[in-house]
Amino acid sequence: MSVAGVVRTTDRPTDDRRTLAPLGRRTTSVVERRQYGAYRVLTVADPTGPAPDPGQFYMLTAAERWGGGEDERPFLPRAFSVMSARDGELDFLLEDVGPGTARLCELDAGDELHLLGPLGNGFAPPREGRRPVLVGGGVGIAPLVIWHEALRGAETLLGFRDAAHAEGAVLLPGARVATDDGSVGHHGLVTDLLPVDRSIEIYACGPPPMLDAVAALGVPAQLAMESGMACGFGACFGCVVATNDGYVRLCVDGPVITV
Cis link prior to 220 (omega < 30° from 0)? Predict the structure, then answer.
């Protein structure tokens, strides 16, 4: 993933203290699986882990059958933004887009998985006098759910491919929706719905073209970005992305990048 058009700034509007993950992965189990159109939500027990910051992520692996088959190499862990956290449980939003996510989407109540997190930098409060606007695309709506709860509501704009994917909008009640095919809400890009207002601060997560469009608006924004990760601790350099301000490791410098 290249985000060369994004300029990373260093004026994060907080002291940048993140919630730290306990050392080592922990084995836990699925409490519940729910389906919303093309997406699945896994509720996972995590009674001993710290409460995550909105925008942080976890590395997930299925405890069984986590690999390409007999005598084949295991899959790398998959990174997922936490969607919500409450009473020792975590919610994750999944979409079946390949063999690793397909295996995670198969998990149901009682199945075990390994969990590492919370990791990375999360969202920070809006800079003084700015109104938050949340913009999500596809499975990228996940970190906006927990942030919407923390903000106690904010204007929210969501973009999806089609009606089956737009069923995920129920996770953010009151959101305005755009779809590529016009089957639900606005026919077009979610960025078409952004208000003409220079006093806003945008919180966005979604596909790279959407994030590039948000960054190009020239208003303060916090972008929750995605890249392939193997470790989550910055050791493997697998999630390095280019910005106009140099290279960053999304697992430790992000996944939320302030622009």
Answer: no
